[in-house]
Amino acid sequence: MTIGVLGTGAFGVSLAMIMRDNGHTVKMWTKFEEEKMTLLENRESPYLKGIKINDDIAISTSLRKTILDADLILVAVPSQAVCDVAVELQKHRQRHQHVCIATKGIDETTCLFVYDVLKLRLRTRRLALISGPTFAIDVANRAPIGMALGSKCKSTIFTVKAALENHHVKLRPTNDVLGIEICGSIKNIIAIANGMLEGMGLPISTQAMMITEAIHDIKNLIRVLGGNNRTVLSFAGFGDILLTSTSSKSRNFTFGQLLGSDASKDEIDEYVKNTTIEGLTTLRLIRKSLKNKKVNMPIIDIMYGIIYKDNSPTTLIDYLIHKE
């Protein structure tokens, strides 16, 4: 199988190496010439120190050439770039090609989930997404990992499984694409909240309480929006929430720690400037989307008040104690 990977960030590189391990021909695309030259010269991602990119993985700045003869296209660009990539894919993708999304989040312009952005542009059923508790460095180190694989198309599920599954990568299929998208987006907000509790010096018992209440809220949200509420117990739900909300490797959790601690405003601003914190953008967009749908999710409003209106992080404790 020939696979074109769009995006040369840590996750895209780690997935590309897994698929190459599985015997597939892998090509990677980056929009940036400087990034391409650095990767070709060093054969190492700056985000995955010590992990060498195989010499037979091609790296190009031509999206058309990268996907020209691909059976599968894997989208692993940041969520803010998905709209532009979807436009280019619309020009060059062939009808028989399957597309798998490894990006989580919401498009800032449309407030649509990433899957919906690509579905509208490409108008194809051959579309899937993967999501689960996976730090890129663990994937690159070939640690055993599990992810949910969401798609409405059986042949796409078969293709993605053939590309990625092996003795240390497990994919569990589901047709609940909406549930996966909701879990994959909101988990970053919960990670910030749990980081705040850590920053306030509260124990793991309180953090476990937060995760439990968050799972209940996400379950209800999935049901209200028309998904399968059991998805919250999948790799994309509980698995990813647990990983992102309890590890210092998580940028969102670390950001929350700073907010909940005695860190200065300058220290917090510096971290935001130099770090991609997906939960910040997601919080703003998911709140707007829920307001438009007239759906209430209190933890979203509470987190919005803390981050964007300078409310005290202690309002999280009030929420946990008084929540029905």
Would you give an account of this structure?
This protein has 324 residues and is α/β, with parallel strands linked by helices. It folds into 2 domains: 2-175, 3-Layer(aba) Sandwich (Rossmann fold), CATH 3.40.50; 178-322, N-(1-d-carboxylethyl)-l-norvaline Dehydrogenase, domain 2 (Orthogonal Bundle), CATH 1.10.1040. Helix content is 53%, strand content 12%. It contains 15 helices and 8 strands. The protein has helices at 10-21, 33-42, 63-67, 82-92, 114-122, 136-140, 154-164, 177-199, 204-224, 235-244, 251-260, 265-274, 278-293, 298-308, 315-322, and strands spanning 2-6, 25-29, 58-60, 72-75, 98-101, 127-131, 145-151, 169-174. The termini are far apart.
Write the layout of secondary structure elements.
Blueprint: E1 2-6, H1 10-21, E2 25-29, H2 33-42, E3 58-60, H3 63-67, E4 72-75, H4 82-92, E5 98-101, H5 114-122, E6 127-131, H6 136-140, E7 145-151, H7 154-164, E8 169-174, H8 177-199, H9 204-224, H10 235-244, H11 251-260, H12 265-274, H13 278-293, H14 298-308, H15 315-322
Parallel strand pairs: 1-2, 1-4, 2-3, 4-5, 5-6, 7-8
Antiparallel strand pairs: 6-7
